[in-house]
């Protein structure tokens, strides 16, 4: 038994010594095709960061003396377009279209609902009848400016939440593979394993 172990060790060291420096012995067994496992990819952190930067520009823009209007405009534009562009950069055109639709549609719907349902805080000029004739014009429909602003904010917040929570992730499959190698070293050999899981 000792002779077999010594012969094996001699064979391995002589093979390692016969190699050129830096050359690696490798063994590729007949393996089945790599196994595919489902993986969830999420980039919601990128969406949230883009929204925070856009909202910061909108809020801080009016505080700036020189470039307030342009900073606020940049913030509004970034709020509408940054997240859809991030989706597109990940190769997800459908998610980009949904994101843009949410960011346009929900604030508008929220503003309309808030204007209709909020407390009446609009004012108008009413001209009373003169000489028995009814006045022209009048107040017409009343609405709520505060309700509209709150509805726009609620719609925008809902759009950001849906975008980051549901649109900024997707399922894909990743192959599970592995390989092994032997590299000669002074006084022996190094065994290495690598893989992607």
Number of helices: 5
Query: Runs with pLDDT <50, length 5+?
Result: none
Supply the number of structural domains. Answer: 2
Q: State the share of residues found in helices, binned by percent.
A: 40-55%
Q: Give the structural class.
A: alpha+beta
Rg from alpha-carbon coordinates: 34 Å
**Helix and strand run:** HEEHHHHEE
How many DSSP E strands? Answer: 4
Strand content range? 15-25%
Q: Termini separation (Å)?
A: 39 Å
Q: What integer is the average pLDDT?
A: 79
Largest sheet: 4 strands, antiparallel
Q: What is the 3D shape? A: elongated
List the helices and strands and how they pair.
Elements: H1 2-18, E1 25-26, E2 35-42, H2 44-60, H3 68-89, H4 93-117, H5 145-167, E3 169-185, E4 188-196
Antiparallel strand pairs: 1-3, 2-3, 3-4
Descriptive tags:
four-stranded antiparallel sheet; 5 helices; elongated; single chain; 18% strand; alpha+beta
Give a structural overview.
This protein has 197 residues and is an alpha+beta fold. It folds into 2 domains: 38 residues, no CATH class; 124 residues, no CATH class. It is built from 5 helices and 4 strands. Strands 1, 2, 3 and 4 form a 4-stranded antiparallel β-sheet that branches. Helix 2 runs antiparallel to helix 3, helix 2 runs antiparallel to helix 5 and helix 4 runs antiparallel to helix 5. The longest helix has 25 residues. The relative contact order is 0.17. The model has no long low-confidence stretch (mean pLDDT 79).
């Amino acid at each position: 038994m000792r002779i077999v172990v010594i012969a094996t060790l001699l064979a391995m060291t002589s093979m390692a010594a016969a190699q050129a420096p830096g050359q690696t012995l490798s063994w590729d067994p007949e393996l089945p095709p790599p196994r595919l496992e489902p993986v969830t990819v999420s980039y919601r952190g990128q969406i949230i960061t883009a929204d925070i930067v856009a909202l910061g520009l909108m809020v801080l823009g009016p505080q700036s003396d020189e470039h307030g209007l342009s900073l606020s405009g940049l913030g509004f534009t970034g709020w509408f377009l940054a997240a859809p562009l991030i989706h597109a950069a990940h190769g997800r055109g459908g998610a980009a279209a949904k994101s843009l639709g949410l960011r346009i549609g929900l604030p508008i719907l929220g503003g309309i609902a808030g204007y209709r349902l909020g407390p009446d805080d609009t004012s108008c000029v009413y001209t009373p009848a003169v000489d028995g004739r009814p006045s022209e014009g009048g107040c017409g429909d009343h609405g709520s400016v505060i309700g509209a602003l709150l509805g726009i904010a609620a719609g925008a917040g809902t759009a950001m939440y849906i975008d980051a929570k549901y649109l900024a992730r997707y399922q894909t499959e990743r192959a599970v593979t592995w390989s092994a190698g032997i590299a000669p070293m002074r006084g022996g050999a190094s065994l290495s394993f690598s893989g992607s899981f």
